[in-house]
Amino acid sequence: MDDDGSKSLSFEEFLYGLRDYGVVVDPDELKTLFNELDKDGSGKLSFDEFLIALRGRMSQSRLAIIDKAFKKFDKSGDGVVTYEDIKRVYNVREHPNYKNGKWTEQQCLENFLNSFEPDESKRDGKVTHEEFVNYYAGVSASVDNDAYFDLMMRNAWKI
Asked: What InterPro entries does the entry give (predicted)?
C-alpha cells in the first residue's frame, strides 16, 4: 500500500490500497476512518498506527507488564519519567553511538527518552504513562504472542 516508500500511508495510498484488496467504502466514510486511525494528526498513517488499528486493543496481560516496566522506569514515582529518572535505569555504556564516541551519555539518554515522544512538536522531556503505553502499543502490534511479548518486556526492563 505504501506506494511512495515513506513508511507511512497518505489518505490516497490508504484509499487505493483498500480498493486493491477489494474493500470498497464511501470516500467520506473512509476519510472519517483514516482520521480516526491517524492518532497523531499528521495526515499520514504511520506503520504503528496502521498495525495498532489492525491488531486492536492490547490484552490485559500486556498492559500489566507495561505497567510494571513503567513503574521501574519512573524512579521518582511521580507518574512522569524525566531525564533524571532515565539516568537511574538506562545504562548507555553498550549503546553503539556511545561506544564509538559519536554521542555523549546525555545524548544517548535524551535519544532514548525521545523515542517515547515521537512527535517532536509535543516533546517536553517528560514521558507520561499514556505515552509509554502508546509506545508499547506500537511494539505490541508487531508481536503475535502474549508470552513472547511478556518475555521481551521482562528481558528489556529486567523485571
From this structure: Ca-bind, EF-hand-dom_pair, EF_Hand_1_Ca_BS, EF_hand_dom
Using a pLDDT cut of 90, give the percent of the chain over it: 64
Q: Which amino acid, 18?
A: L
DSSP state of 46: E
Distance CA(15)–CA(34), nearest Å, equals 9
Task: Please answer whether residues 83 and 113 qualify as being in contact, where contact means their C-beta atoms are separated by less than 8 angstroms.
Answer: yes
Q: How many CB atoms lie within 10 A of CB 117?
A: 19
C-alpha distances (whole Å) from 11 to each of 55, 96, 159 are: 20, 37, 41
Please give the single-letter amino acid code of residue 20: D
Q: Is the pLDDT of residue 118 over 80?
A: no
